[in-house]
Design goal:
It is built from 3 helices and 4 strands. It is of the alpha+beta class. The chain has a 4-stranded antiparallel sheet with strand order 1-4-3-2. GO terms for molecular function: unfolded protein binding.
Length: 166
């Protein structure tokens, strides 16, 4: 009888949430120095532009591939010195979370896990290309996600009255 009560209570308990990292890998990496070796003789202040992008793909139920793309472009005196780009990927298991929390995990926690690997890969490409090291500063993915939600909400607020008037 005691077993029946225990089993009944366990059956009614909500599904436990699970989050796990299954694999981290570089999906793509490239380095271009189109004006080498002449660019090594140039004097001047390099201009650096860092771009981030993220893509999430569903591989199976509760299994997602998150790809963080980090692109670093350096120009010197109007010429491209180099372009380093890394697509750092990971496979994550996410189960038992509601849609909102799953989206937040995939948009914030997963890129935070991938970012140090991407930063290292970009840094290695730059120094192996013969250029001075570049250290990408930490990125606040939570803030980026909050800004994305704010923009999404502002877009919904703007379009909601227009739909009501139509």
């Amino acid at each position: 009888m005691a077993d029946e009560t225990t089993n009944g209570a366990a059956a009614e308990a909500p599904t436990a949430t699970q989050f796990n990292l299954q694999k981290i890998y570089i999906k793509d990496a490239s380095f271009e120095a189109p004006n080498a070796p002449q660019v090594f003789q140039e004097d001047g202040q390099p201009q650096l532009q860092l771009n981030l992008a993220q893509k999430v793909a569903t591989l199976a139920e509760g299994v997602f591939e998150v790809v963080l793309t980090v692109s670093l472009t350096c120009t010197l005196n109007g010429k491209n010195a180099y372009l380093a780009e890394v697509h750092q990927a990971g496979i994550f298991g996410v189960n038992g979370f509601d849609q909102r929390n799953t989206e937040a995990l995939l948009a914030t926690y997963c890129p935070n896990v991938l970012f140090p690997y991407a930063r290292q890969a970009v840094g290695d490409l730059v120094t192996n290309g013969g250029f001075p090291p570049y250290y990408i500063q930490p990125i606040n993915f939570e803030q980026l996600y909050a800004e994305q939600l704010r923009r999404r909400q502002a877009g919904a607020d703007v379009s909601a009255p227009a739909q009501g008037n139509a």
